[in-house]
Amino acid sequence: IAGNDSSPSSPGETIGTYWPSEPPEAALDGNLDSEYTNHGSCSGTSPVHAECGIKTGFYITFNSEPFILVKFRIVTHKGYPDRDPNTITIEGSNNNESDLVFGKSWTLIYDGDAGLTKDPGRRAYGVTQTISNNSLSFASYRILITSKRGEHVCVSYSEFEMIGRFPD
After folding, report:
1. Residue 3 belongs to a domain
2. CA gap 57, 144 in Å, rounded
3. Does residue 67 sit in helix, strand or coil?
4. What is the rounded CA–CA span in Å between residue 108 and residue 129?
5. CATH number of 144's domain
6. I need a labelling partner for 61 at 20 to 30 A (CA). Which of 27, 97, 153, 165 fits?
7. Is pLDDT at 37 greater than 90 in this prediction?
8. pLDDT of 117
9. Does residue 82 surpass a pLDDT of 90?
10. Structurally, how many domains does the chain consist of?
11. In terms of residue numbers, what domain contains 159?
């Protein structure tokens, strides 16, 4: 959850893993046919549960100068609407990459709707969400899922698209 420390995730079908062929990088590759799937506190064989995949996500550090994130949108994955993110947090940081595992490195800039309240269909863009009143520029961003549409063994999405601008 926002402000907490991060733990690394690895490929697998056990607690704390992502599906081996669906890594975090898939959420940022521009390919609607790939997807990121994380089990979180569940495993690939767990009973379906609302908490599976919650408190998971990723962070990314850009090679460009820090920028202000103003909008984002999420693309749903190929199947199972119950896996869709419902609410998320977004945090930013300008700390060194080695410090990004620490919650104190992050500043919360968004806590709310993922833009998928109404199911847009499969491999489809959700509603573009605007980050109001954000004037802070960051080199790194952390996205965490705080709830999903229904009960399943994981959370999945195809893309997380970020729209930003450089400071004036």
Report:
1. no
2. 4
3. strand
4. 16
5. 2.60.120.260
6. 153
7. yes
8. 96
9. yes
10. 1
11. 10-165
